[in-house]
Structures are given as structure tokens and as C-alpha cells.
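Need C-alpha cells for this chain, all 75 residues.
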Amino acid sequence: MYNKIGQSYGFLTDDAYVVDAAHGVEFLLAATLYVNADGVLNDNKYEYDTIGFPFLRDLGRRVYEAELKRKAAAR
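Here are the C-alpha cells for all 75 residues:
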């Protein structure tokens, strides 16, 4: 897996290229979340660790599992 993340003022972005050659799985996944529960910018109180990263981890796992089950014509 190759990815690049960005964090700023409650915005969390992750762009990932996931490759599992052993299982013939390959996909790109990009997501941006806003995790600023109090709505105050520049207070360094953002939910990156409690909401953002766990959500992105779970999203990546679900997409990977779906791709494992999907029957692609090119595989």
C-alpha cells in the first residue's frame, strides 16, 4: 500500500493505492473527512485519532474485502 495523508484545521485526507498481487487486488481510494466537532478552527482540538483515522482504516478494510470478493474481468 502506498498512501499520502493530509491534516489541517479538522480536515483529514487520505489517498491510497492498494496492491495485493497474491490475490489479484488493486485499487485507488481517496477520502476527505471533516473531524472538527466543536467547529472552532485553529484550536488544535480535532478528532483525527478518535474518529478520522479509525474511519479511514475501516473504510480501507471494507473496500479491500469487497475487492477480494468481486469478480473482475481482467483478473
